[in-house]
Amino acid sequence: MVQSLNRLKESPSQTAGPYVHIGLTPNFCGIPGVFEKDLGTDMVNDKTMGERITVRARVLDGTGAPLRDALIEIWQADAAGLYNSPTEIRGAADPNFTGWGRKATDMVSGECLFETIKPGRVPYKPGVLMAPHITFWIVARGINLGLQTRMYFADEEQANADDPVLARIEHRSRVPTLIAARLDDVYVFDIHLQGDKETVFFDI
Amino acid sequence: MSIDPKPNRQPEIGAFFQRDRSWHPPAFTPGYKTSVLRSPQKALLSLDNTISEITGPVFGHDMLGELDNDLIHNFAKPGESAIGERIIVYGRVLDERGKGVPGALLEFWQANAGGRYRHKKEGYIAALDPNFGGCGRTITDEDGSYAFRSIKPGPYPWPNGVNDWRPAHIHFSVFGHGFAQRLITQMYFEGDPLIWLCPIVRTIPDRAAVETLIAALDMQATIPMDARAYKFDIVLRGRRSSVFENRLEGN
């Protein structure tokens, strides 16, 4: 026998189910008055620094149909590349930018819109920067463990080409699954759960 | 005025332990039919955490309303309360090192005592309770502990197999210190025979893992003549010490 490491096991995940809105966006699903506002609704205010953008996201199943009961959370750096987090030790992030957003996909169209700013670059390790990106976490009925992925920006061609995380994707034809196209000031990001265009999901 | 007991404490900035994906349910679990078309089929890209996953937003106790952790009253008309078996759910949020996780945001939602959710897509014939909304939230204390009050949710049938029933359960969303710790799970109740019949519970491969989601009846935490108590601890990914790792400052 040796000493025990006394580690605990992470609680196993269970699906968010079809009624995730009741807990995470109750005002969105017709339960007003319990919480003043759904958390994660507003990421920016009038004083937020940086370029205003809209991210239009959808999650598509194996038949190509959009999920109308998914919930997406995003997390990103501010315009200067700093996270609004106690764990950010490189400097103080923009106090007028939360960095975190939460949206339920529309129950008809399956779309959700995040009003945010374009993030700055953050380091991968000393001396190496990552391209601007937004971290995604996706849950829904039928998803047993929240899916983690990233959205990069199509108009950051050079930064994307140098990005150390994108460089880890063996099958280069899959890299575009993480890159959102720009239409005016809207970035369009379709997340494919299956099929030829299956999004690269992360074990991170 | 409160005094920070550890004023010189530095935030922990290490990466999180690798997730043991054999302990979690796999994505493709045909016994739970909805997973079939919603499960990624290609291998995940495995990466150590970057600053984008090590960091995460923080939620302050000041955002909480007085009844946020009281589902018996937070949707009820003044002077009324939700119908059902009154319970207290309490426990701690820990990480895999056994350390309490302070400041974790817990959000929970559930069906009413008859097994009916307050949701436009819900079609079960059981009655809605006009005094029950079904959602609540709280933030853990300095040692990771939390508590809330509710009614025991009822089991309910769902369209999967012809006669599949969900055991009584409460959904939990947990926000720890880093975005990589983000977790949603469900709490079940000690002694419920439906647990072991449920296709969603059965997505978890290991019986011992399921048992960590079953809250224990705790008669010592029960309030006599008021409410029974169930204890439910939640474990999030642990984090590595960053003492011997390259730090990101100065970049």
TrEMBL record, chain A:
This is Protocatechuate 3,4-dioxygenase alpha subunit. InterPro entries: Intradiol_dOase_C (IPR000627), Intradiol_dOase_core (IPR015889), Intradiol_RC_Dioxygenase (IPR050770), Protocat_dOase_a (IPR012786). It is an enzyme of class 1 (oxidoreductase). Residues 36-174 form the Intradiol ring-cleavage dioxygenases domain. It comes from the Bacteria. Its EC number is 1.13.11.3. The keyword 4Fe-4S does not apply. It holds the Pfam family Dioxygenase_C. Gene3D superfamilies: Aromatic compound dioxygenase. It comes from Aminobacter aganoensis. One of its GO terms (molecular function) is protocatechuate 3,4-dioxygenase activity. CDD domains: 3_4-PCD_alpha (cd03463). The keyword Transmembrane helix does not apply. Keywords: Dioxygenase, Oxidoreductase. Belongs to the intradiol ring-cleavage dioxygenase family.
From TrEMBL, chain B:
Its EC number is 1.13.11.3. GO terms for molecular function: ferric iron binding; protocatechuate 3,4-dioxygenase activity. Gene3D superfamilies: Aromatic compound dioxygenase (2.60.130.10). InterPro entries: Intradiol_dOase_C, Intradiol_dOase_core, Intradiol_RC_Dioxygenase, PCDO_beta_N, Protocat_dOase_b. GO terms for biological process: 3,4-dihydroxybenzoate catabolic process. It comes from the Bacteria. The keyword Magnesium does not apply. Keywords: Dioxygenase, Oxidoreductase. Residues 89-117 form the Intradiol ring-cleavage dioxygenases domain. The keyword Protein transport does not apply. Belongs to the intradiol ring-cleavage dioxygenase family. This is Protocatechuate 3,4-dioxygenase beta subunit. It comes from Aminobacter aganoensis. The lineage of its organism: Bacteria, Pseudomonadati, Pseudomonadota, Alphaproteobacteria, Hyphomicrobiales.
